[in-house]
Amino acid sequence: MAKIKCDIFKSYLFKNADYAGDFQIPILHSSKLLPNKLIPFSRAMNTNDFEQWVHFYEDDKNFILVWNQTKKYLPILKKFYGVISPDFSVQRNMPLFMKLDSIAKGRVLGHWWQQNGIEVIPNVRFNGDSTYEFVFEGLDKNSNLAVGSLGCIKNKEERKYFVEGLRELIKRLQPKNLIVYGAAPKKIFEPYSNETNILHFSSWTTLIHQKERV
C-alpha cells in the first residue's frame, strides 16, 4: 500500500516564491487593481455578492481556516474580484519569532493565491519599531498597499505606535494608493494626502450601524 504523504510544512505554498531581507520574508507583489468594496472573510463565506474584495481585518480566529485548510478555500476566494492579504496579529508583547510567523503566513498565502490567479493587495501590519526591520521587506515601492486601523487608534498608546508605523510605511514604500480599512482620522492620514492616494473603507460594523440609523 502506497504511503500517504503529509505536507505538514505546507511547502506547496512556497513554490516559486522569492525572499527579501535577512529574515527571508516572502516577496509579495501588488495587484494593479483597486477594490470597489470590501467584505470580511467570515461574512464572505455566506454571500452571493462576489463583485467585491475579501479582507481579513478581524479576529484571527475568524479566518485561521485559510491557513489550516488552505486548499479548501481557494475556489471560494477565486470567485471574488480579489483579496487583501491576511492580517495575522502582530502584538508588541509577542516574541520575535511569533511576529515573524504572522507576517510570513500572510505573505506566503498572498503569494500562493497570486500563483493561482487571484488578485492580491498586500496588507502591511506593523507594531513598534522592532517590527520595521521585516514588515516592509518584500513589498514593492509605489504600489497599492493596505492597512487596517481597527483597534489601533482608540487609545493614546496604540495610536502613537500606529502613527509612527504609518510614517515609516510612507517613507520606505511610498505607496501609490493606500487602502485604509477602519477609521481614517484626518489628523493621522491627511499629512500624507500629497504623497499617496488614500482610499478609505469604513469597517463592516460601522456600515451596519449606518444602515440601522437610516
Order of SSEs? EEEHEHHEHEHEHEHEH
- Give me the CATH architecture, please: Alpha-Beta Barrel
Number of domains: 1
- Percent helix among the residues? 25-40%
Arithmetic mean pLDDT = 94
Any idea of the CATH topology? TIM Barrel
CATH class: Alpha Beta
The gross shape turns out to be: globular
Task: Work out the radius of gyration.
Answer: 17 Å
- List low-confidence stretches: none
* DSSP strand count: 9
Strand residue content: 5-15%
Strand order of the largest sheet: 3-4-5-6
Number of helices: 8
Biggest sheet architecture:
4 strands, parallel
Keywords, separated by commas or semicolons:
214 residues; alpha/beta; TIM Barrel; 4-stranded parallel beta sheet; 3-stranded parallel beta sheet; 8 helices; 9 strands; globular
Characterise this structure.
- Helices cover 34% and strands 14% of the residues.
- It is of the alpha/beta class and 214 residues long.
- It has one domain: TIM Barrel, CATH 3.20.20.
- The strands form three sheets. The protein has a four-stranded parallel sheet. Strands 7-8-9 form a three-stranded parallel sheet, with no helix packed on it. It has a two-stranded antiparallel ribbon with strand order 1-2.
- Strand 7, helix 6 and strand 8 form a beta-alpha-beta unit.
- It is globular, with a radius of gyration of 17 Å.
- The mean pLDDT is 94.
